[in-house]
Amino acid sequence: MTAAIAPIASNGPAAAKAAGPSATPASPLSSAMAKHRQELGTLATTLPFFAYTACFLLAPTVIVIVGAFQDRSGNFTLANFNKMFEANTIAAFGTSILVSLASSLIGAVVGALASYALVIGAKPNGLLRRMVSAISSALA
Known about the structure:
Order of helices and strands: HHHHH
Number of domains: 2
Radius of gyration: 32 Å
Largest sheet: none
Oligomer: single chain
Structural class: mainly alpha
Strand content: under 5%
């Protein structure tokens, strides 16, 4: 003989808490508010990035492109592109490329040596490792 077992009805916050988070279904309003908060959080984190990008990358690029097609008085010209092939300009480009290559090579060698020394000699939670981590995070 089998007896039917009826579920125990329990109301109140203690029963919902004991049953777990899935015991009380989220109302449509609360899920909409959560979604709205998430969207605001996304906007709050991406808006400064786009503002920074516009100020320090986009605006200077537009200024240089527009200025490349203007003379000193602001009139349209292509004469600036003729200057690219003068001997002084080509020499300046060559010097700039050499300085860039040298500085990147020096930075790569010093960085590789510092990384090797840090991995081999520094204690796992030592002061040197924490300082390097903090500095690299700040400079990134």
